[in-house]
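Dock flavin mononucleotide; give full complex structure.
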Amino acid sequence: MLEILRNRRSVRQFTDQKIETDKIETLQEALLRAPSSRGRNPWKFLFITEPTTLQKLATAKEHGSNFLGGAPLAVVVAAEVSLTDVWIEDCSIAAIILQLTAESLGLGSCWAQIRLRPHDIQQSAESFVRELLGMPGDLAVECIVGIGYPQDRLPAHPASYLDYGKIFQERFS
Ligand SMILES: Cc1cc2nc3c(=O)[nH]c(=O)nc-3n(C[C@H](O)[C@H](O)[C@H](O)COP(=O)(O)O)c2cc1C
């Protein structure tokens, strides 16, 4: 796990290689093993591999979602918000578990933020995604994780990148 954390970087450029079915199944299992508050599991995960849909998802935001167009897989992380008041926390944990599991399988990934982001001046990114994917009204979208085999990997963050000034002991002052 520590090696995965040390080497992990966001990957936004992918090769054309399809992700094997057994790896997709492992990603699905990892998502469903994520912890959630009170075990409510408010999430729904939509796996998308259809290139035309991926191209459309790439336009969800003006900046920061383009990479989805070149990913062989995108996972939309959404939740039934009526089930819990902490769906954002639950979905964030599931999303990072997805990313770390992808890393452990030799895949790369990047998070595209959808919640609270605009598509354009008239529409939110969430509403754009909702319309595109025919999502029911009680589902909220947190993010979309693009996953695939890395075209190239950014170097691991060196130890000097770590800001130990953000870590405190016993008290914050
Ligand atoms: C909550 C969250 C939202 C993010 N949103 C985006 C995004 O919309 N588009 C994008 O390209 N990267 C996004 N990222 C990836 C970050 O830009 C990236 O993790 C950060 O720059 C650090 O780089 P690293 O992941 O390579 O260490 C997001 C990451 C997080 C945790």
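Observed: Residues 9-10, 12, 64, 67, 110-113, 154 surround flavin mononucleotide (CB under 6 Å).
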